[in-house]
């Protein structure tokens, strides 16, 4: 009986040595953010056309950045990575992750895009994070006082860090 349990105990010990759920691979990461929708429902049609024209660049190709993720940052995982992808002092609350899926609300001091919080959901692996984000923006200066924004943020490991 004990002889049969030893291989099982060894497998459990080896499994504990693996990565934690949400842990990422260190290296060079490329992040691309695209605005997929920006609507100002209270704006007159000509203003909506101007807004769409101005947003065309971000809605087309998007904006990309690259950064080197250290082993320590990679171990902190997808939650920390998601918080830090938005520059500023941000929290994720509420937030859930598991089995390659995540969701939550990103809240940044100063309000990213003037929004109180951006809802996000997405998928992750150790080499890719793919999020869809959406927010309602409440600003008195906007026609009708509000707008909505939706965007996608995709981060992928592209190799070792560039020296």
TrEMBL record:
It comes from Novosphingobium aquae. It comes from the Bacteria. Residues 1-15 form the signal peptide. This is DUF3617 domain-containing protein. Keywords: Signal. InterPro entries: DUF3617 (IPR022061). It holds the Pfam family DUF3617.
């Amino acid at each position: 009986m004990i002889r049969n349990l030893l291989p099982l105990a060894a497998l459990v010990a080896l499994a504990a040595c693996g990565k934690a759920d949400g842990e990422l691979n260190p290296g060079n990461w490329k992040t691309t953010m695209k605005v997929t929708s920006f609507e100002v429902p209270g704006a007159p049609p000509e203003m909506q056309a101007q807004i769409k024209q101005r947003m065309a660049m971000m809605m087309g190709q998007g904006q990309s950045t690259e950064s080197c993720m250290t082993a320590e940052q990679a171990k902190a995982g997808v939650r920390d990575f998601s918080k830090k992808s938005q520059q500023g002092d941000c929290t994720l609350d509420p937030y859930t992750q598991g089995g390659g899926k995540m969701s939550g609300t990103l809240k940044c001091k100063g309000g990213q895009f003037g929004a109180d919080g951006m809802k996000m959901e997405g998928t992750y692996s150790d080499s890719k994070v793919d999020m869809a984000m959406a927010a309602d923006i409440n600003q008195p200066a906007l026609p009708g006082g509000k707008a909505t924004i939706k965007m996608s943020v995709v981060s992928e490991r592209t190799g070792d860090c560039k020296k």
